Amino acid sequence: MTKHEVVIAGAGPTGLMLAGELALAGVDVAIVERRESEGLAGLRAGGLHIRTIEVFDQRGIAERFLWEGHKALRAPFAHTPLDISDLPTRHSYFLALWQMHIERILAGWVGELGITVHRGASVTAFRQDEDGVDVELADAGLPDGRQLRAQYLVGCDGGRSIVRKTASIEFPGWDATASYLISEVETADEPEWGLRRGTHGISAIAKLDDGRARVVLHEERIMQGIEPTIDDVRNSLTGVYGTDFGLRSASQISRFTDMTRQAAQYRVGRVLLAGDAAHVHSPMGGQGLNLGVQDAVNLGWKLALVVQGKAPESLLDTYHAERHPVGARVLRNTMALTAMERSEDRIDALRAMMAELMQQDETRRRYFAMMSGLDVHYDMSNGDTSESHPLPGRRMPDLDVTIDGATLRVFSLLHEARAVLLNLSEPGTWDVSAWADRVKLVNAAYAGEWDLPVIGVVTAPKAVLIRPDGYVAWVADATAQGLDDAMSRWFGPPAAA
């Protein structure tokens, strides 16, 4: 039986990101992926939102994606492009890049980290006990059988997750009300370019540089769970436009629906869920891939500390507590966006009213901060309602700081996926030696202004405790108390003297 500390089911963006996070922390992790080789059939997610780009920047790999993607300084609301270049981030743009390329780049990073990937294998069953999980595989090709042993199993195996079903985790939500096809096609006749909005949804045809067209087609029937074919594309073109425009070929065909569901629990014992295994929804707004990657970054460092015995198992409960509300809000957003795509007099009026409101700068910025994940705010109060500082629980801004005479960005301090206590006062003010194996102490000075546009200008802290996922766990304000409590809460008890 092959043993690993963590086994991940699924080598999509979520599984790959989680594997990378665990490997950076020194965890022995393996991925099980049913696809024989890298590569994704069909057109899925179309790009990266701001917070996901920031997450990649925190790990020092953002440039890999920026090199291949296209920066868009405007993002759509109800198909009206709006400016996002003034959001409070170094990455105030949407990066257009198809999921197949995102996966390829992440797989390259995972390969550099030496992570084991069992391709052509799939999880069929598992049994967990007090010490770990036995994972049964189909078509594994392993030298010592079709079974893996791990301390923890994480299901990143998509909306039809075998891990979620086997763990008997409920998946409540709403059934699909609409079905769509997306494909790249070649036609004999010039198609009708642009957007067509129908009673139940939209269809659109866009011209590609090579002369072909990319189509998004609303289907007359809900075809959930059925692999699409060129005949489906032809039938949908005819159903929407009255002609197939002389369809010659169709490639990269994918189908999606607006089914909306979320796992009732993200963890049962030694089994956890992330990405589409934990939540599925309409792709309107392009939030799914980004939500999954951010799940992985929240979970990775916590799981690593527990596996290594440095933090109690209860730390894993904060994964569900923090990410389930974020996922629920994304589900709500996508349901609203899907409803507004339909054509009916009352919905048309609602869409026009919302588009008018979005012309206001504050509304526009708040909306895109929400859509991109910039406004995520975790509860760091630990039951203490007296906490008044606005920064704990929010993402740490990528400020310029001076360290040993050199100017560096805060994100560069997070490349190792390790917590950082950023000391911005006199060296020696804070003692973190009892957590030195988990928290890196960095003495620095501000290289510029302290300004947080999302939550207003606040007094510059004297120190900031930054979690490996880039969120602030504690700040030294006027009272400067509670550092040891915050360290113990998030990174486990102090090491014995």
UniProtKB/TrEMBL annotation:
Transmembrane segments annotated in the record for this chain: none
Native organism taxonomy: Bacteria, Pseudomonadati, Acidobacteriota, Terriglobia, Terriglobales
NCBIfam families assigned to the protein according to its UniProt record, in alphabetical order: PRK06834.1
Presence of keyword Flavoprotein: yes
Cofactors that this protein relies on: FAD
Name of the featured protein: FAD-dependent monooxygenase
Keywords: FAD, Flavoprotein, Monooxygenase, Oxidoreductase
Annotated ranges, domain FAD-binding: 4-334
Gene Ontology molecular function terms on file: monooxygenase activity
